[in-house]
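Predict structure. Chain length: 736.
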Amino acid sequence: MSFSSARARRVLKRRVAVWTALAFTPALHAQTLPATAVPTNAPTAAPTATASQAASRGIATLPAISVSADAPSATLLEPASTGTLLGLTPFDTPASIDVISNEQLRERGAVNVTDAITQAAGISAMRHPGNGGSSLSSRGFTDSNSVAQLYDGVRQFGGVGQTFIYDPWAVDRIEVLRGPASVLYGEGAIGGVVNVIPKKPTRGPIENEIQTTVGTHDTQRLGFGSGGALDDKWSYRLDISGNHSNSGISLGDSRDVAVTAALRLDVSPDLNFTLTQAYAWQEPTRYFGTPLINGDIDYSLRGKNYNVADSKIIYRDSRTELKAEWTPNPATRVRSRVYYIGSDRDYRDAENYTWQPASGLIQRSAYTDIRHDQQQVGTVTDASFDGHLFGLANKVAVGVELNHASFKHTNNSPYSGTSLVDPYDVDHGRFINIAGTTPRYRNTADQYALFAENRLMLTERWSVLGGLRYDHIDLKRRDLVAGQTAFDTTFNNVGWRIGTVYDVLPTLSVYGQYAEAADPIGSLLLLSPANKDFELSKGRQVEVGVKQTFWDNKGQWTLAAYHIRKNNLVTRDPNDPSLRIQVGEQSSRGLEATLGVELTPAWRVDLNAAVLRARYDDFSESVNGAAVSRAGNVPTDVPERVANAWVSWKFAPQWTASAGVRYVGRRFADAANTLEMAGYTTTNLALQWEPRRDLTLALRAFNVFDRQYAETAYYNQTQWLLGEGRRVELSANYRF
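Prediction complete.
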């Protein structure tokens, strides 16, 4: 076959796929095509740029462009489930949305989900055992109270820390919405939201996959995946994975196992049910950081761990969900799910380490024995409709969410006990438990929410999108020691946004958005009686941006500018520093840019960068009994410069070499900005070989230059968690 005839067939195949995609767009069924024009169970294909835009606007046009069949799909043009309820693409949504595809997850080989998430623009990690190793920073706002994490669109309530999502083996894609997201997901998402979407049952023949990995630091990984159709109605997905490593430090062993199983029943082409059961068990590294020596970090202590020998950290998480999707006609879709989330966490550690100048020893304190027992049951239902309003194409979605969460806290407060250890020759010793470990309190929350979203096409190129969500939360705390109710309080919030998108060209759009959102002043399921009367912190954002695809969808770029202001922070009363009042404020403004392009069939480049200015505008701390203003300072754990670059090169028919570089700017460990964690750059390299179509071998090196850096600070600010050193892994992936 000649090159020209092969290309002609690829172009013809792509155009057939475009017509198929157009045939199945609900708006087009309603306006231009009869419902019987194409069988409802026919396969669909991802639309090209103009087809996607036309389909979402109800415009029956065939784009006069061609795309190579083997070119990677542009994620701007694929519908995203995060950022909108209307099934829009990121191109058509007035917000900043990054999608890390399964192809990118495989190529870059992130060891855990947090590493994969931080490949998105402007996202950095601030993980330590106290937050489940999952907390993130986005647009100047940090932690699970301001950057929410979802698993397949469902959020674990309370902001206690996400421990379920760890291994990327079972992940299909990761969608990152930057900026306020309360209009979709409720309080606690002013900085953004991350949605980790698992692999799901698919139609087609059964396919299996197994991957094994060995590496330095006694690393072993094993993953098995299987999925496909069992018959004309049933399909399934099963993923199992396990990991072990010693992290290169003392007491550094970590291990985990995860199992995800899903079974789907297609009752008819219009109705399906999916039952999912997932379980995860982790014993992460029992490392709470390295103490500062003379106010600075001593990297010669990098391999030292000051925890006790009988310390433990265990996370046990499970999820059960039944989901239904019904499409009674081409213009209507109804989705509903009921779910259960269970999460148990056990900690027994010496958590605080302080260098003693007089003796040169490390004093250990905060001997902490804590157990979390968290459960949540809930349901989410939404319905979307395509139609017309005042003669204009219109899409609307409405929904309701209900959930009940319970959190039992067992501890040995006041966490007494101290000991001294040599910083270079550590005698780990045993755990000290003076107060005894007993159940202390149980917080319960009942939440209901009503939400709606609408998009109106003013012209073929100009759309307006609005969203509204009302949240009501009843929060109760039961003192299990005194046997009485400590408080019973209520929170209410209305979050909303209004945005517009204008297509300057079929492949170039500009957008603007205004949004209002809310954050709790702390994790709601950990809320103490002292904070029960404080209100939710409110945030406002203005964002403008531009998005474009080019070179027949082989490239895409985005640029966003934003300003966020959050008030009602809890700060010290200048008239009585022993008291706290809710008058504080912080803000951030910045620029974010992304670029992804297939330069040639052999070369691909993906770049992103974020620059921001984050500040406390009104915030005070108590220092020696006096209120000290931190106005003008950078909030803790916020890098003002973040960038990622990834380059891949197919230098031979079965060989691909790739390199990734990540830069994170300086951060401050304290609100006074006296403890500066220096910026750092890490480099990852990979070499992949496909000796046959069903086998891939990969050699990967992480942090190849063994860069020494601090990733975050622990709660006492003077002990920093150091990033992992150089690591090399060899993996084999076999598909059958």
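Summary: The two ends are 29 Å apart (CA to CA).
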